[in-house]
């Protein structure tokens, strides 16, 4: 019964965190916007008013019912259907937090919480533990790159270092190098009974730090991840403190369920291939690492003059060369960073050709994510011009 209670609480937390994040980024889930919808498949049509609103409202209602009702399985299935439709219609909706919640609900949808099935409930709890540990392990490993130390970490620390002396800043430079190691070690320490309490304490401190530097008193940036950070703290406490210690033998039981095998492969094993650039960064817990792809659209003055004001405000430049940074535009309009993959950036660039009389008026510069072999050799990222 302890597992049943934990699954029920985790279900409510997941639904609440997902609902809040979706409301904070509501434009992302609608079709009436200037940042283009990028369907997973080119043949899919755009869904605009009122279908987009109906689908978004239904998805939000399903989450609300999961939060407030006791018997939630049919609403979890309904949410999965609507959420998958939303995800197929726009690649930029594949945010790390949404991907995690989607897979957690997928696992729970196969479980009847009203039945006392100890084998199945233990398998779900074991998988959730592995999922949480995998997030910290892979996320920390992704940060073992020079871009995190020289770019991302100093930026994250600005709300603190802006109030420090230069000598004080130098005294904490070591933290940038230690941060990835701490995150990796903590993700592993969760699974040992002697160290799990200390690990959870460290994770709480880490998430409080993230909430401070990204929150209203810091950068006030990417608010959709604020509920995610709170949810992760609660997941860690429920799974590793309030539940029994992890045992290797539990993994064998876990693999008797096909749904759990699928999630294990996608969420825990496939992130390895991101280091070879063979699996997407946002599906590999690669966030705030300083090593994801980027894309910039360059347009002529003639093209810029034809842009709607809602897009033109994101164009910066001079001398007949104006640039639009796709990630920045997406963040400012939709409240989330653009999905950091080449195919997404190229699809966004293609939508600008309707404003041009000559294809030479538009070109796309792509900065790729470095592979593990390139990072180990100290390479830096160079932008390359790409024809969409």
Strand order of the largest sheet: 2-3-1-4-5
Order of helices and strands: HHHHHHHHHHHHEHHEEHHEHE
Could you tell me the mean pLDDT?
92
The number of distinct β-strands equals 5
| End-to-end CA span | 55 Å
* Main sheet makeup: 5 strands, antiparallel
Rg over C-alpha atoms, rounded to the nearest angstrom: 22 Å
Share in helix: 55-70%
What sort of overall outline do the alpha carbons produce when their principal axes are compared? globular
The fraction of residues assigned to DSSP E strands is: 5-15%
Name the poorly predicted regions: none
* Structural class determined from secondary elements: mainly alpha
What's the number of structural domains? 2
Number of continuous helical runs: 17
Record keyword descriptors for this entry.
388 residues; mainly alpha; 2 domains; five-stranded antiparallel beta sheet; 17 helices
Quick synopsis:
This protein is mainly alpha-helical and 388 residues long. It is 57% helix and 6% strand.
Write the layout of secondary structure elements.
Layout: H1 2-24, H2 51-68, H3 73-89, H4 96-108, H5 118-142, H6 146-161, H7 166-171, H8 174-189, H9 196-214, H10 225-241, H11 249-254, H12 258-269, E1 294-299, H13 301-306, H14 309-312, E2 316-318, E3 321-325, H15 326-334, H16 342-350, E4 362-367, H17 372-376, E5 384-386
Antiparallel strand pairs: 1-3, 1-4, 2-3, 4-5
Describe the structure.
The N and C termini lie far apart (55 Å). This protein is globular. α1 (2-24) packs antiparallel against α10. It has 388 residues and is mostly helical. The protein is 57% helix and 6% strand. The protein has 17 helices and five strands. The mean pLDDT is 92. The relative contact order is 0.12. A hairpin with a 2-residue loop joins β2 and β3 (321-325). The protein has a five-stranded antiparallel sheet. It has helices spanning 2-24, 51-68, 73-89, 96-108, 118-142, 146-161, 166-171, 174-189, 196-214, 225-241, 249-254, 258-269, 301-306, 309-312, 326-334, 342-350, 372-376, and strands spanning 294-299, 316-318, 321-325, 362-367, 384-386. The protein folds into two domains: 2-25 and 95-283, no CATH class; 294-386.
């Amino acid at each position: 019964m302890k597992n049943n209670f934990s699954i029920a609480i985790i279900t409510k937390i997941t639904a609440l965190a997902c609902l809040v994040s979706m409301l904070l980024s509501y434009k992302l889930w609608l079709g009436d916007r200037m940042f283009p919808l990028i369907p997973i498949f080119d043949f899919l049509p755009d869904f605009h008013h009122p279908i987009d609103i109906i689908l978004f409202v239904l998805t939000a209602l399903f989450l609300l019912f999961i939060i407030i009702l006791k018997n939630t399985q049919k609403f979890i299935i309904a949410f999965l259907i609507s959420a998958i439709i939303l995800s197929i219609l726009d690649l930029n909706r594949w945010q790390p937090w949404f991907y995690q919640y989607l897979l957690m609900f997928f696992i729970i949808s196969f479980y009847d919480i009203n039945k006392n099935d100890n084998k199945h409930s233990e398998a779900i709890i074991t998988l959730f533990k592995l999922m949480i540990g995998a997030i910290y392990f892979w996320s920390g490993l992704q940060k073992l790159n020079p871009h995190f130390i020289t770019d991302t970490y100093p930026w994250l620390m600005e709300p603190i270092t802006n109030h420090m002396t230069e000598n004080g800043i130098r005294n904490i430079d070591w933290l940038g190098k230690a941060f990835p190691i701490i995150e990796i070690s903590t993700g592993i320490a969760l699974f040992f009974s002697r160290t799990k309490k200390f690990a959870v304490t460290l994770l709480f401190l880490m998430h409080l730090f993230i909430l401070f530097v990204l929150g209203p008193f810091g950068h006030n940036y990417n608010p959709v991840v604020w509920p995610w950070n709170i949810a992760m703290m609660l997941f860690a406490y429920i799974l590793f403190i309030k539940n029994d210690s992890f045992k290797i033998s539990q993994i064998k039981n876990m693999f008797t369920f096909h749904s759990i095998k699928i999630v294990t492969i996608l969420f825990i094993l496939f992130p390895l291939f991101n280091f070879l650039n063979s699996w997407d960064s946002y599906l590999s817990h690669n966030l705030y690492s300083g090593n994801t792809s980027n894309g910039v659209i360059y347009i002529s003055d003639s093209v810029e003059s034809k842009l709607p004001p809602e897009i033109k405000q994101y164009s910066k430049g001079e001398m007949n060369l104006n640039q639009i940074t796709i990630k920045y535009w997406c963040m400012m309009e939709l409240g989330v960073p653009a999905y950091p993959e080449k195919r997404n950036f190229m699809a966004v660039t293609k939508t600008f050709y309707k404003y041009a009389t000559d294809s030479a008026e538009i070109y796309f510069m792509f900065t790729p994510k470095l592979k593990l072999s390139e990072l180990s050799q100290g390479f830096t990222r160079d932008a390359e011009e790409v024809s969409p």
